[in-house]
Design a protein that fits this description.
4 strands, 94 residues, alpha+beta
Length: 94
């Protein structure tokens, strides 16, 4: 049974500031390729971290709302760990 999820993904855009929209769409395509159906993508924008996390001062925050089976989340986490542009990712059931 599909559930509604909200995923906050922080992108490392160092040196890729011009390609942010393409990175956001690429992650959306990865969510859909794993079996999720996107409902909304909201770019929150660049924000500074309270402290340097893994030698990075800040990142570009994006909020994804999608519906998916529960096992899709584990597959998605594993797949996005391999993407060098994804710095942090967090998912919750809406």
């Amino acid at each position: 049974m599909k559930k509604n999820y909200e995923g906050v993904i922080v992108l490392d855009t160092t040196g890729r500031e011009a390609d942010v929209d393409e990175l956001v769409q690429e992650i959306g395509r990865e969510i859909e390729s794993e079996g999720g159906s996107l409902e909304q993508i909201e770019q929150i924008g660049p924000k500074e971290f309270a402290y340097n996390a893994r030698k990075l001062a800040g990142g570009h925050y994006v909020n994804y709302q999608f519906a998916a089976e529960p096992d899709v989340i584990d597959k998605l986490k594993t797949r996005l760990k391999l993407n060098s542009a994804v710095h942090l990712q967090y998912y919750q059931v809406c």
